[in-house]
Amino acid sequence: MGFYEKHILPRGIDWVMRFPAAATERHQLVPQARGTVLEVGIGSGLNLPFYDSSVSRLYGLDPSPELRRMAEKRAIHAPFPVDFLGTVAEEIPLASDSTDTVLTTWTLCSVDEPDRALAEMRRVLRPDGRLIFIEHGRSPEASVSRWQHRLDPIWTRFAGGCRLTRPMDELIRQAGFRLARQETGYIPGPRLLSYHYRGIALKD
Asked: 14 burial class (0-12, 13-18, 19+ CB within 10 angstroms)?
């Protein structure tokens, strides 16, 4: 891991994810998590203040030691136990049918194999569990999508593997989920980055 990935990128991610538009998104969906929760891509822990009292335990998964250290500091004030998992989303070290909620926020854009990651999320969810997601991805506007595809190879190199062109709703459905609720649209910010998919999915 180079200097950029170890020292600059984690702080850049934390800074970008503290923008007001991201907080607005969190406020709408994170409080709907309940029971035993797995947060895939906990990052620097910015979702932690948005969980409510219906959470009994949180597993925070992130492969970045630097981001996990930031999250550990924020987790000190959490009103529920927080256990950190330093693995990738494609290999979740939890038993099948062991969680009530899986939360993923701005994570599926950067995992290497989103199909495998979503299959793992589905595996660890109980039959009545819910996947809550807030993700950015491919715009339905042809002109925006074209530029996303053009810039994707460059963007990915400097943004921690983030891809601009993933159709998040399609990926979630293909992994065996049913979209119980979904909203899409742009949030404030550059249109290449700001087309969002947000909602709740159930095991099909």
From this structure: middle
